[in-house]
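Quick start: load a record and inspect it. Here is BTB/POZ domain-containing protein 9-like protein:
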Amino acid sequence: MSSNDSSYIGEARIKRIRMDSEFKDLTFLVEDMEIKANRTLMAASCDYFKVMLYGKTNESKMSRIKLNSTPGMAFKKVVEFVHTDECDIETIDEKHMLDLISLSHEYQFSHLLNYIYDDILLDGFSVDFCISLFDLSIEKQLNDFKDKCLQYFDVIFNEEVETDRFVKFSRRLVDELMLRDSFAISELDLFKCLLKWIEANGEEQSIGIFKNLRLNLINIKDFNTHVMPTKLISCEDYLIALENNTFTERAVKQKAGAESNSICVKKVINECLVTTETISLNVNQSLSFHMIRSKKQMNRIHFRVASGTGSPNFRLKVTSNHYECIPITVKRIASNVGTINGYDEYRVKFSDSTVQTFSISALSKPIVVHSYFVCSQK
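Running the structure step on this input writes:
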């Protein structure tokens, strides 16, 4: 028997242990659910379950274990991941996603946390979810998730400043964003957002909120017209900031309709482009696929980005033939299938639509995009 045959047999046995219900010798009672699991696999997944199931605990002697104050759907996903090494986050709503991340941290289940971090693309979630995820990452000290959220918020006002969104930000999120050079917003717009934030959250929560406002980036006319009448910032502080040139510029906002040599355009015909070409995008550069002469309804797009760069570092946008943004969900296809010649393949799903453009933009660091691109309807 060859080593390959032995390896295959070993994998088949492990798969059977993982999937065969006969080997699930343990039942967790969570909320109104009974969730069956393999005791050995659960214990091998992380130290939390190892201590619970094989340590000097009451649970180590039980075949049915009741878990109080544990979110059932999130725990079910934990058990699913233990047995399959996969977690389909597309099927998880926003509340349960937060529960899953929190539970994974509670169990110190780093393998699952890393899986979620690599697979989650915040463009597919609401702003409220991203705010909650940022606050959770601060509470649990999940620095990777925190950085992912900050990258998302860096460009949230790139096209339009919406104060209704800004007022929902936690004070910690506001402070973090104000410190970032990459937060793409004009200082005058930021000042106006801060006024609305104070109005919505109260003055007690707002002490010192202007300390990182980059006063030297507000011109004298705007200061006299918009800032000085509020009496929240003194003329003396403003003049000192101007004289010392206290703060550096923030990321430049790209105005709608403005021409930019940072935009790469790729024309696409017949909903499909497959070549060997690759396109390198620097920070804030975009690649747009334009669907020309297309009236076909579609609901998914596949594209490829160079692998090995860690967390996805791009923003996606799909517009209809009426130039309206189409809500999307994004998923990286499992690595054993989706990594092709050094590129990770991603699937973008949306409701049946006639697509006009699909664009991908690099965020905090450069990326390499393969010109392979397919639209389809399943």
